[in-house]
């Protein structure tokens, strides 16, 4: 701050004051990313990886949820079938199992 005040006292006019204020701002502006070359890749790569991960997750979940395997296909036990039918009747009858 003292450099700006000292510089402003020796320089005359608003343009000199503005030039003294812009000089530190230009140094901070160099830290901004440019949009060419490797800097462009550094800006786009994280977004691209996030998008690919999201797409992969969506495809994995869709594939996992669409695969329907039949459990116990081809195996038939009359006692087990009778038990399954009894369970279906008791649960679909609307009673809560005694609770």
What can you see in these coordinates?
The chain has 99 residues and is mainly alpha-helical. Among the domains are: 1-32, no CATH class; 33-64. It contains four helices and no strands. The chain has helices at 2-10, 14-29, 38-66, 78-92. The termini are far apart.
Main traits of this protein?
99 residues, mainly alpha, single chain, 70% helix
Strands, total number: 0
Radius of gyration: 36 Å
What is the general shape?
rod-shaped
Low-confidence stretches: none
What topology emerges from the helices and strands here?
Layout: H1 2-10, H2 14-29, H3 38-66, H4 78-92
In short:
The chain has 99 residues and is mostly helical. The chain is built from 4 helices and no strands. The chain is rod-shaped and about 105 Å long.
